[in-house]
Write a structure and sequence with these properties.
The complex is a heterodimer. By secondary structure, chain A is mostly helical. Chain A is built from 13 helices and two strands; from the N terminus they run αββαααααααααααα. In chain A, α6 (about 125-135) runs parallel beside α11. The longest helix of chain B has about 35 residues, at about 1-35. Classes of the chains: A mainly alpha, B mainly alpha.
């Protein structure tokens, strides 16, 4: 009963704890409302038959069965999403090349860096509009350049052609994200202790050996981060696909995220869209897990909003 | 001597490669600006590589063809709410994490795992929750999911931890309250963290498309990226005004980025280096 004279609030420790809780509360509420709660709700919704005007009804795995057996678009979207993700290692390799070129005391390195990175902070919708115009069949500069160089006779409708549409969208996406990969890899390169290279040079290790024995292993955390960003990108490229092709022609550029959007907000099948989201999220977690294993376990924290 | 000339050749090759890369990275910028300032039939073949009779009429047209001022106003309001909310909430959470308290590790683990949940994976429930809160078609609803950012919380945490402990103790001995210590000592010493936070949040919020697409049905509440998409679907891509619109929308983020590249990059890589 020693606290009779001092109220709960009067105690220094409790006051500090209250302060800390108040300080954390706004962020925790936002993350709870828009990250954690939705994740759980998605799972619950995916096992229900529900629409805003009907009461919910448990239907077990029905949505998943429908997806697996009857939804052709799901399979196309899944394939396209995997192609989209599979393209990211190529982009990361290219970014590594650029990072190696602009690393070290090259004159003007910061200018090159700025130029390569300039496309990253841009609005994806505007980037999509620019690339639509670059790819245009009639007045687009890409067709003009290819025709002038004599590589093609007839203009190609890059975004209207079933075979060209997906690679074209991926190329535009790579143009935008390349600088981001480069920056991450540069940060990684700059954290490699230089004496490792000196020691290797004294031992007479050739350049390629230094690259594969020192640079690549030391870059693992950065490479892992790039791979995770590449995986997450299959979600966040919604904007670019929406504006460039909206999944077309047919479903040639349909990604899981555009399929989710259309199921949920065009056809208002929220329950089915939730099941699709669960599948894509599971895919994301699984791929990240594999990447983490490949990078040799706990490879560092991940960021991206 | 031979080795020096070889070195010079290598250096030249590096510059050449980088110039080619830089050229290809810049072509889209050139092409959109060129189209935005020309009046010719943009489908003429072959297209002229240089702008013919450049002018700025397309930029004026945008203001009349669509409710551009309204989109601009909406974008500015939402970005402002998001930026202010982020600086305040992230600084608060970042400060709390510099203190020892029960459950601190749990909160840290929670934040780190939330980073792995892309917003796009939450759209269906996020929409339903926002509808339940009756925040559809409101500025606050547009900004709410973006009001706090985990990366930026960690940026603040690192900045606060870098402030010498003795300075804080001295301030406490002088009788400054907790609030005053934060406002008068920690925040002024964390200006780079604030800058990083402002820039990242501004760019994210300015570019955000999916969330406004989901929750704003009212054209009066739509933001610039939605306006751009609307322009494309109503007026087709047959006019230079579309590209003038795109240029105007891109300009603020490019300017902000060029002015504060260092802070921007620090924010993005703070997760990569894992502090």
């Amino acid at each position: 009963m020693g606290t009779q004279n001092v109220s709960w609030w009067g105690q220094q420790r409790n006051r500090q704890l209250a302060l800390i809780v108040c300080f954390l509360l706004p962020s925790l509420v936002i993350f709870f409302l828009y990250r954690i709660l939705p994740l759980g709700w998605n799972v619950i919704l995916s096992f229900q038959s529900w629409s805003p005007l009907r009461p919910a009804e448990w239907i077990g795995f029905e949505h998943y069965v429908e997806m697996w057996e009857y939804d052709d678009v799901f399979w196309i979207a899944l394939k396209n999403t995997l192609i989209f993700i599979a393209a990211s290692p190529l982009a990361i390799a290219a970014a590594l090349g650029v990072a190696l070129l602009v690393n070290s005391d090259l004159k003007g390195a910061s200018i090159y860096r700025t130029i390569v990175f300039l496309s990253y902070p841009l609005m994806a919708i505007a980037v999509g509009i620019i690339w639509r115009w670059m790819y245009d069949e009639r007045g687009g500069i890409i067709n003009y350049a290819l025709r002038s160089a004599g590589l093609i006779d007839k203009p190609i409708g890059f975004l209207q052609d079933f075979d060209w549409a997906l690679p074209s969208v991926i190329f535009a996406e790579v143009w935008q994200i390349l600088g981001f990969y480069m920056i991450i890899l540069l940060t990684g390169l700059q954290s490699i202790p230089q004496n490792l290279y000196e020691a290797a040079r004294i031992d007479g290790a050739p350049a390629w050996a230094r690259f594969f024995r020192i640079t690549i292993p030391m870059l693992r955390p950065s490479l892992f981060l790039c791979v995770v960003v590449g995986i997450l990108n299959s979600f966040s490229s919604f904007d670019l696909v929406y504006i460039m092709t909206n999944g077309g022609p047919g479903h040639a550029t349909e990604l899981l995220i555009t399929h989710i959007y259309k199921a949920g907000f065009v056809q208002t099948k929220f329950d089915y869209a939730a099941a699709l989201t669960v599948v894509q999220f599971a895919l994301l977690v699984a791929l990240t897990f594999v990447a983490n294993k490949a990078a040799g376990g706990n490879a560092g924290a991940v960021e991206r909003d | 001597m031979a080795s020096r000339s070889k070195h010079a050749t290598l250096l030249g090759l590096r510059h050449l490669t980088l110039m080619v890369i830089a050229f290809f990275m810049l072509v889209p910028f050139y092409w959109v600006i060129k189209t935005a300032i020309t009046n010719e039939n943009i489908y003429a073949y072959p297209p002229s590589l240089l702008p013919q009779n450049p002018h700025l009429f397309n930029f004026v047209d945008v203001w009349y063809l669509i409710p551009f001022p309204r989109y601009l106003l909406n974008s500015i309001i939402v970005s402002t709410i998001a930026v202010v909310g982020n600086v305040v909430f992230n600084a608060m959470a970042g400060y709390a994490l510099t203190r020892q308290f029960a459950g601190r590790n749990l909160v840290l683990a929670l934040f780190l795992s939330c980073m792995l949940i892309p917003f796009q994976a939450t759209i269906i429930p996020a929409y339903l929750i926002t509808a339940k809160l009756s925040l559809l078609n409101t500025y606050f609803g547009l900004a709410l999911p973006m009001l706090s950012t985990i990366v930026c919380i960690f940026v603040f945490k690192a900045a606060f931890e870098a402030v010498p402990r003795s300075l804080i103790d001295a301030a406490r001995l002088d009788g400054l309250s907790e609030w005053r210590i934060i406002l008068r000592v920690l925040m002024p010493l964390s200006k780079p963290a604030i800058a990083t936070n402002v820039i990242l949040t501004f760019i994210w919020s300015w570019n955000n498309f999916l969330w406004p697409l989901l929750i704003t049905r009212d054209p009066l509440m739509q933001t610039l990226p939605l306006g751009l998409a609307r322009f494309l679907s109503y007026l087709e891509d047959t006019t230079g005004a579309l590209y003038a619109f795109a240029v105007m929308v891109l300009a603020p983020s490019i300017l902000v980025f060029l002015m504060a590249q260092k802070e921007f990059i620090r924010g993005l890589t703070s997760g990569a280096t894992k502090g």
